Amino acid sequence: MSSDVDGPVFDFHARLAPVPGALERLLDVHDRCGIGAAAVSAGGSIDLLRLSRQLVHGGHVTTDPDNDAVLRACAGSSGRLLPFYFANPHRDPEHYRQRAARFVGLELSPAVHGVRLDDPRTTALTSVAEAAGQPVYVVCLARPGCGVTDLVALAERFPRVTFVLGHSGIGNIDYYGVDLIAPAANIHLETSGGYTSVVRAAIDRLGPHRVLFGSEHPLQHPDAELAKFRALDLPAADWRQIAWDNAHRLLKGNGDDPHHHAPTDAGGLVEPRGTGAASGGPAGRPAGTGGSVAVLRGPVRGDGRSPGQG
Q1: pLDDT bucket at 283, cuts 50 / 70 / 90
Q2: Distance CA 43, CA 48 (A)
Q3: pLDDT in tens, 121-166
Q4: How many angstroms separate the Cα of 240 from the Cα of each of 5, 7, 184, 236?
Q5: Is the CB of residue 13 less than 8 Å from the CB of residue 216?
Q6: What is the DSSP letter of 65?
Q7: Nearest alpha-carbon partner for 285 in 200, 216, 222
């Protein structure tokens, strides 16, 4: 990507946990990185040391992520943050069904809750997302029933649902995962965590229309993820798709109604005005975007933060 390319940036995967000041910290980091909007999921539902042990040895938790804190934070973000429902598959899916209209997507993490992608509980939650017209973000891991192959099988069962393979697949060098999802047109890839070469492979194999920029903030600083795209030297049109257009399409629907997938009470997607420092991009260090966004749906109030996980 040439050094003069910029444009709006949407972070498709950040986290918030219910601690004071989280909203302000996240927005400040995004301002300094030139990120105008983000999709956020609940963090803090599992200790990071325990999570890292689970990734190696197995195990799970049954605790509920604090989705209400995410709703409050998004409502207080002036439309810059959109809430994902981080599902606990150990809970009745009716809980998600009754609240789906307040969120823009569903997250499933076998790494946290230990429920396989071929489990009836996963099927039930995915059915709710399908009825709500929402994408499903999935964190895969190298465990029976939880891998990328299992995600592909789930996507085949739900061809009308758009799935997002989180964190560039399993580990940071998952070329195999990219290859597995390539024939599955309803699976996109979110780029946080993967090596630059894997991101390049995903763009080449899937096309830029199936790749989404994400940071996994606060576990990863957005600048570290943006640096990968600076190094890739992408055409401006490809970066625009990855950094904004694909998220805009997935979270606002494919029809003419721009608020098709917008939540009813938690703010909505924003479009940064202008270009250069105000709208951000991987080419430079913008001064901030806090005053440079046009809210497409009205905000309410809230707070929250994440130590990150999953």
Answers
A1: very low
A2: 10
A3: 999 999 999 999 999 999 999 999 999 999 999 999 999 999 999 9
A4: 9, 7, 23, 6
A5: yes
A6: P
A7: 222
